[in-house]
Design a protein that fits this description.
Number of strands: 2
Oligomer: single chain
Largest sheet: 2 strands, antiparallel
Strand order of the largest sheet: 1-2
Strand content: under 5%
Structural class: mainly alpha
Radius of gyration: 19 Å
Length: about 240
């Protein structure tokens, strides 16, 4: 059996950043109900005690798989099919690894909050103090840089382990950092900034109808952000990693 080889591309021009972002929204447009259902399930399983991160990883993999199906003009089912995904050994290993990383990050956040005199309670989480917001944003940025496109590398290459996928992802990011940074800025303009604005509006409006409207739009944008970010990861992988 011949050994599989991979090539990490690095000859992209800055214009492909817009192509990645546009393609992510176009893939979503093909099956919006399916993708929003997956995003909703991602949020719901994330709140499961201890195993939330494990199953959320599997749901994210399902979004990646659906992105590939749509790109290749294959039918997409609305079923999650998590057992099928987790039967793939490296996907199972990645989900366990991600759960461990999340437990470490949660412990760090808890220790930092206690050292600052904040209580890591439900009330503190709901008030979302600036310190807590910075911690959550910081951990999100860290995870985005740490994992990069490794979920897609894991999913579509059964023979690769977690650390091999991470190393390939880091190589891709380092070689294309300027283009990826510009693409992320474009994503922020379409998703993060509107999400922030409607979150702020929901917090300051006093009219019940306006609050409900702002809250609904905020939730929809948040779910859309979950989908688009994962489809974006697939697009980066599909154009940035060659298998031969």
């Amino acid at each position: 059996m011949s050994m599989v080889k991979f090539k990490i591309r690095n000859e992209f021009n800055i214009g492909i950043a817009w192509v990645w972002v546009k393609a992510s929204f176009m893939v979503f447009r093909e099956k919006p109900i399916n993708f929003m259902y997956f995003a909703l399930m991602f949020v719901m399983v994330s709140f499961l005690p201890f195993l939330g991160s494990f199953f959320a990883t599997a749901v994210a993999m399902r979004i990646l798989m659906s992105s590939a199906y749509i790109t290749n003009n294959s039918p997409v089912e609305i079923k999650l099919n998590l057992p099928m995904l987790l039967r793939q050994r490296n996907v199972l290993s990645f989900a366990i690894f991600n759960t461990g990383i999340d437990l470490i990050l949660v412990s760090i956040i808890s220790e930092v909050m206690q050292s600052q005199g904040m209580s890591p309670s439900a009330n503190e989480m709901l008030t979302l103090s600036p310190q807590l917001a910075y911690l959550l944003i910081g951990t999100s940025v860290f995870k985005a840089l740490f994992y990069g496109i490794s979920p897609a590398i894991i999913l579509f290459n059964h023979e690769l382990g977690v650390f091999q996928a991470l190393r390939m992802s880091w190589t891709f990011i380092v070689r294309n950092i300027s283009v990826i940074f510009f693409a992320v800025l474009l994503l922020a303009a379409f998703l993060i900034i509107p999400l922030y604005l409607f979150t702020m509006l929901a917090m300051i409006v006093t009219n019940t109808v306006l609050f409900g409207l702002c809250f609904f739009i905020m939730i929809m944008i948040a779910l859309l952000a979950i989908v688009i970010s994962n489809v974006f990861i697939y697009n980066l992988y599909a154009t940035g990693v060659e298998r031969f």
